[in-house]
Amino acid sequence: MKRTNRAAIAALLLPVIAAGAAQADDTPVAPEVLVTSGIEPLPTKQVASSFTIVTAKDIETFQYRDVVDALKSVPGLHVVQSGARGSQTSIFTRGASSNQTLVMVNGLPVNDPASPGGAANLANIPLDNVDRIEVVRGPQSALYGSQAMGGVVNIITRSGGAEPRSTLRVEGGTLGTLNTYANTGGAAGDVDYFLSLSRETTNGSDVTPARLRDARGEEKDGNAVVSASGRIGARLNEHLSASAFIQYTASDTDIDDDGATAGFVPVFQNFDSTYKSKRLLTSGEISGRFLDGQWRPRFSVGVTQYKSDLADNPDPGGSIYLADVEYKGKTVVARFENALDIHPQHLLTFGGSYTRDEYSSNGLRDFGGFVVTSTSDADTDAFAVYAADHMNFGERFFATVSLHHDMPDDMKNHTSYTIAPGYYHPETDTRLTASYGTGFKTPSLYQRFGSEFSAFLGFPAGQYTGNPNLKPEKSRGWEVGIEQGFAVGKARVGATWFENRVKDAIEIIFDPITGDSTAANLQRFDVKGLESFVEINPTAQLTARIDYTWMSLDTNTPAVVGALTRRPRHEIGLTTSWRPWDGTVFSANVQWVDPDRDIPRDGFGFYVYPSPYTVVNVAASHRLTESVQLTARINNLFDKTYEPAHGLEAPGIEALAGVTLTF
Predict the structure, then answer these.
(1) Is the pLDDT at 223 greater than 90, yes or no?
(2) Long-range contacts: 553-557, Cβ < 8 Å, 24+?
(3) What is the pLDDT of residue 566?
(4) What element of type H or E holds 464?
(5) Which of 31, 91, 79 is closest to 55 using CA atoms?
(6) What is the sign of the dihedral through the CA atoms of 73, 74, 75 and 77?
(7) Calpha distance 93→100 (Å, rounded)
(8) How much is the pLDDT for 30?
(9) Which segment of 189-193, 263-267, 590-594, 611-615 scores lowest on mean pLDDT?
(10) What pLDDT is recorded for position 154?
């Protein structure tokens, strides 16, 4: 058993203790509503489920570059980026698999139906147009249906303000990084708009650690991302409003796919393997207010399209592997939803949705004569109806009861539910919450209908065939939490205990005799853990928060053990900021991670148990004038060498500086 690094924990606690000793003179303002609470936003004090909001102010203060950076500070959420910036990125919410967290942009699902498990790849999602990111933890299928077993991440983009405003930002730094951003927003009469354009490029660093490199030495794995988005909203009349959103993102990432020489010697460096992806999101909605605002209907439709290309050619003096595979995915969602104030103490929400997923893959991978050919093409439809009642009895008692009935194509119908009560005691600023809920996830299209054929020197050598008889993965979980405020909002502590059970987990099983593989429902695994925090805001100029997450996973099925990797047993995060005078901000973001188990990239041994690591990021900004701001940050300040996924190394120290013009 590994021991917790007490010195590292103590080092993380020091800034919080120092912050607590400062003089208090002002009260910070917390976010007022949680958008990702169902059909209609709810006041944060009336939400019993565990949630975190990363605000636009947080993004600016800590100079998060993309969604991956922003989510690393969220408790109960472990983000794994497989190497350098732009590489495959997965999230594990309270121990759930990476494909059991629903990721949305403005409420539109962006999980990729072309990925093997239907998971979302969070790499290369810029923040230049993001207003806030909301994370709700625990089973949320009663609100959002399939995929929301572990939780929900909702990325909410910016709208135009009353006054026209434009921003230009340029930053550059080590690792050959150059980032440029431009946006403009405003309003004209009853119409508001927000447009953004960004380009991020970096030469990067070698994702393959030195111990796995060959005689050719180090090579850099770069990344380039271009993103453009636009949102327009309009008030049509006193009863109706409409809005539309579009976002296009294209990326080109160098990856080190595993390979081998002609003599079957493993090669972990790959000088010309790339992963290119394109994503197009389009959505629109029309909403109304009738019966003196008591009935608020909304109709929305959205389409998300994906196209990815995996390419690799033989390297001179290196790997002889070859790959040329194209993946396509498409999701269409239509919803009609309603919010109705049936009583001063009851907000009733109800609606229905239709979802269509499409997936195809074509191409081959040649592993030195062992050729795998992908020939998949599948689609599925699903309908759902849902309702919730949010009850509010004064400013003390509140509760939400939710039901979601899903009707997936060619599968049994499934009903999920959540009961989430809470109590707030204003005299002592004490908040007690609890929730019990169920979740489910339909098998991905690849798991049900995927098809890959293998051959060695022209002779059949096995195949992967999807399993159309798979059952949905199911979960149930509960949590209880307490938050206590001190010194009129100057400090707050909290803790939440949670337990989840996942049944019928889906994994790929392999027959070593025939070489065939397929997807199968295995037994179950249990997760339990503790999320706790201490937050101190002694002045308007000084803030600090430390989060600690402990988690334990258990299974009675040996085949599931391999799926329970990359979930840290202990994780600590510290965020702190200081504004010594108007227009100047210093901030730090520290993460200490104690990985529990991983699968070795070099194939030696069944599992590896990596050592804990600490990563420190610091940032500073200074506003020269109302229109000019200077920024600087250092990622991985102490140049820590660590591997978020075994055999795939994160970048070392990186320094960046930039200037922002606002007019």
Answers:
(1) yes
(2) 553/95, 553/525, 553/526, 553/527, 553/596, 554/525, 554/526, 554/527, 555/523, 555/524, 555/525, 555/526, 556/523, 556/524, 557/522, 557/523, 557/524, 557/525
(3) 86
(4) strand 459-465
(5) 31
(6) negative
(7) 8
(8) 43
(9) 263-267
(10) 96
pLDDT tens-digit series, residues 230-284: 999 999 999 999 999 999 999 999 988 888 877 778 888 888 889 999 999 999 9
Q: Is 642 helix (H, G, I), strand (E, B) or coil?
A: coil
pLDDT at 316: 81
Strand 151-157 relative to strand 101-105, pairing = parallel
Q: How far is CA 215 from CA 219, 318, 342, 381, 659, in A?
A: 11, 9, 72, 51, 41
C-alpha 483/C-alpha 494 separation (Å) is 4
Q: Are 588 and 575 spatial neighbours (Cβ–Cβ below 8 Å)?
A: yes
- Rg, the chain, Cα only: 25
Q: At residue 457, does pLDDT exceed 60?
A: yes
* C-alpha span between 576 and 572 (Å, rounded): 13
- C-alpha to C-alpha distance for 65 and 69, rounded to whole angstroms: 6
What the block records as the tokens of 214 is 């060959």
Partners of residue 418 on adjacent β-strands: 402, 437
Q: What are the beta bridge partners of residue 109? A: 104
pLDDT given for residue 101 in this prediction: 94
Cα–Cα distance for residue pair 380/411, rounded to 1 Å: 10
DSSP state of 99: G
The Cα 610–Cα 627 span in angstroms is 47
Q: Report how far residue 139's alpha carbon sits from residue 141's, in angstroms, rounded to the nearest whole number.
A: 6
Q: Which two tokens stand for residue 503?
A: 């049944």
Tell me, what's the pLDDT at 605? 67
Name the nearest CA neighbour of 418 among 439, 437, 441. 437
Rounded mean pLDDT, 292-301: 96
Q: Going by C-beta distance under 8 Å and a sequence separation of 6 or more, which residues neighbour residue 265?
A: none
DSSP 56-83: HHHHHHHT--BHHHHHTTSTTEEEEE-S
Distant-in-sequence, close-in-space partners of 605: CB < 8 Å, separation ≥ 6: none
pTM of the model: 0.91
SS3 content of the chain, % helix, strand, coil (to 5): 10, 55, 35
Give the 3-state secondary structure of residue 98.
Answer: helix
Neighbours of 488 (CB within 10 A): 9
Determine the length of the chain. Answer: 663
Beta bridge partners, 660, equal: 169, 629
Average pLDDT for 498-505:
93
Count of other CB atoms within 10 angstroms of residue 54: 24
Q: Are 512 and 532 spatial neighbours (Cβ–Cβ below 8 Å)?
A: no
Bigger pLDDT: 354 vs 566? 354
189, with CB counted inside 10 A (0-12, 13-18, 19+), is exposed
Average pLDDT over residues 101-129: 91
Q: Which has the closest alpha carbon to 244: 282, 281, 284, 280?
A: 284
Residue 292 to residues 342, 343, 538, Cα–Cα distance (Å): 12, 14, 43
Q: How far apart are CA 446 and CA 374, in angstroms?
A: 11
The letter for the amino acid at 618 is: V
pLDDT digit string (tens) for 533-589?
Answer: 999 999 989 999 999 999 998 876 655 555 578 889 999 999 999 999 999 999 999
Q: Rounded to an integer, what distance in angstroms lies between the CA atom of residue 362 and that of residue 375? A: 5
> In a 3-state reduction of DSSP, which class is residue 152?
strand
Q: Which letter does DSSP use for residue 470 in this model?
A: P
Rounded to the nearest 10 degrees, how much is the dihedral formed by the CA atoms of 651, 652, 657, 661?
Answer: 20
